[in-house]
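Quick review question:
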């Protein structure tokens, strides 16, 4: 049985573990976060949501996910 390497990342201030070679797209699916009406920041840089399938998480990455809410 092969053991997969795990890495620690921080999502909205909460530390979680994922397997290495985990993509941002896969993280959004795991967290059940719809991509419309959110902004994603990776290590203090806003990322283009069109590229999330090409972004692979690294040990120590810090991710902030912000939801947009309308109102007046």
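Suggested answer, residue by residue:
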């Amino acid at each position: 049985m092969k053991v997969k390497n795990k890495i620690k990342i921080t999502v909205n201030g909460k530390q979680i573990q994922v397997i290495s070679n985990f993509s941002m797209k896969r993280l959004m699916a795991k967290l059940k976060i719809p991509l419309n009406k959110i902004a994603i920041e990776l290590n203090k840089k806003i990322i283009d949501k069109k590229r999330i399938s090409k972004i692979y998480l690294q040990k120590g990455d810090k991710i902030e996910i912000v939801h947009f809410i309308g109102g007046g």
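Why it works: The beta strands are 6-11, 14-19, 38-42, 45-46, 62-67. The mean pLDDT is 91.
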